Amino acid sequence: LSHGYSATRRMWDGQHRALGDRYQVISWSMRGHGQTESPVDPSQYSAELTVADIHALLRHLGVERAVIGGLSLGGVASLGFYLAHPEMVRALVICDSGPGYRNAEARAAWNQRAQERAAELEARGLDALSDRSREMREAMGEHRSAQGLAHAARGMLAQEGSHLIDGLPGIRVPTLIIVGDQDQPFLVPCEYMAKKIPGARLEVIAGAGHSSNLDQPEAFNRVLRDFLDNLPAV
């Protein structure tokens, strides 16, 4: 399970508790987030390196195949991991996320917001997270470096190209897409992914915003456990 931008692995503590009796649950904090290292070199932050970090973590733990999932930026990383290493993915769980843009102008507008986020972190420090989404606010005290988060915004949150959205029809594993019914910016992207990924299952969580697993944990865990319990036998 991969977290959203400016959150940490701790956002998945509830899923560790809810699923740990039946499944091995692995969560991690991305570069520049939480207590992980924050390289000073901006080039050490990218979508490709994030995918490589997931791969290295699974190899380190001796995991050859796993259900790969994440929320927001973590969902983007999960899609990227599938496209790079489909043989290691048993199923996908994409939460409150999107596949990026084909339209260059829309992508440029997204990237401008990422640049503004980075500049705000450099100007205000971690206080810049205080008015953001729930998973960001709750992680404020867990981060070591506002500069690391700024580098992550420019290198990991910003988008390049349309390879993720173009790759959706080629996904060949069971896929669960979860989105909060109050997460307005991501309702349409999640519906789009559910239509484009063959056989994907869309679950809309009532009363949840962008942090659907935190806002409505019981409903989220019920949906996730049902999906995992009904996956085809390996």
In short:
With 234 residues, the protein is of the alpha/beta class. It has helices spanning 13-19, 47-60, 73-84, 104-124, 134-138, 146-157, 163-167, 184-196, 212-215, 217-229; strands at residues 66-71, 89-95, 175-180, 201-205. α2 packs across α3 (73-84) and α4 (104-124) packs antiparallel against α6.
Query: What's the arrangement of strands in the largest beta sheet?
Result: 1-2-3-4
Question: Could you tell me the radius of gyration in angstroms?
Answer: 16 Å
Principal-axes shape call: globular
- Category from helices, strands and their pairing: alpha/beta
Distance between the termini: 20 Å
Describe the model:
With 234 residues, the chain is an alpha/beta fold. It is built from ten helices and four strands. Strands 1-2-3-4 form a four-stranded parallel β-sheet, sandwiched between helices. β1, α3 and β2 (89-95) form a beta-alpha-beta unit. The relative contact order is 0.18.
Features of this protein?
four-stranded parallel sheet, 10% strand, 234 residues, globular
Q: Strands, helices and their partners?
A:
Layout: H1 13-19, H2 47-60, E1 66-71, H3 73-84, E2 89-95, H4 104-124, H5 134-138, H6 146-157, H7 163-167, E3 175-180, H8 184-196, E4 201-205, H9 212-215, H10 217-229
Parallel strand pairs: 1-2, 2-3, 3-4
